[in-house]
Design brief:
mainly alpha; 3% strand; globular; disordered C terminus
Length: 256
């Protein structure tokens, strides 16, 4: 039913993009609010990263507080961030890649992650492929769920596209040229993603890092997509770099 809700929301995305509603929203919403949406998304991602690394942890009194900086996962995170920050200040385009490599090596050396292999066949899509329940998604109880999917994806994609286009220098007097096509691709991706068994597909604010490194054209995006496809066959290696390790999962090993 959840995948069905994503599919229905995606169909509504296609309709709004086809009629140019979201393109009109991009033009109508003040620039300050459009930039604020992108900043909010960025702060959310930063907060998630700090939490997963253990730099910040939950606290009943203040919601969040500083974690134990002596734990190995925090060490890995701070080393990787420091390398990225220094290389970025030196205007090195590969700063993020070098930082990922250094932090991965450090994580392996101090035992935070383990070598899991180089390549393997991608997992089967059978558990989620075309398992969406469209009829179930049309139940009245799902209206609120579909609305949330639609509302979030609407402003998420809008804020992301504006931020990335601004980084790439594509905005013209506060207007994104050919925004309708970009939003339609975003909406169509959500419908296809629901059929494949994933949550709403949208443009990611992290794309601004690629734009800052020099990416400006659709060819860059196509090449990136091709590399993601190849990465499916190197999932053990990818898991070493960005697998589901969280410091909160290992609190018994690294007591504060």
């Amino acid at each position: 039913m959840a995948l069905g809700g994503v599919a229905v929301a995606g169909m509504l995305f296609v309709l709004t993009a086809g009629f140019g509603l979201r393109e009109r929203l991009i033009t109508a919403i003040p620039d300050s609010l459009k930039h604020a949406i992108a900043v909010g998304i960025g702060l959310l991602i930063a907060m998630v990263g700090l939490q997963w690394a253990g730099v910040v942890v939950g606290s009943p009194g203040t919601l969040v507080t500083l974690g134990d900086l002596r734990t190995p996962p925090v060490t890995v995170a701070l080393v990787g961030f420091s390398v990225m920050a220094v290389l970025t200040a030196w205007n090195l385009r590969s700063a993020l890649l070098v930082g990922l490599f250094v932090s991965s090596v450090v994580a392996w050396l101090i035992g935070v992650t383990e070598y899991q292999g180089l390549a393997s066949l991608p997992p089967s899509m059978a558990p989620t492929f075309l398992q969406l329940d469209l009829l179930g998604a049309l139940h009245p109880d799902m209206v609120a769920v579909i609305f949330v999917f639609l509302f979030l994806a609407l402003f998420d994609s809008m804020g992301t596209l504006v931020a990335v286009a601004e980084q790439a220098g594509l905005m013209r007097s506060g207007i994104l040229p050919r925004a309708c096509g970009a939003l339609l691709a975003d909406a169509a991706g959500t419908v296809v993603g629901a059929g494949l068994g994933t949550s709403t597909v949208t443009a990611y604010i992290e794309s601004s890092a690629g734009v800052a490194a020099g990416g400006r054209t659709g060819l860059m995006a196509v090449v990136t997509a091709g590399l993601f496809f190849l990465a499916l066959f190197f999932s053990p290696l990818v898991a070493m770099v960005g697998g589901g390790y969280r410091v909160s999962d290992e609190l018994t090993l690294y007591p504060g």
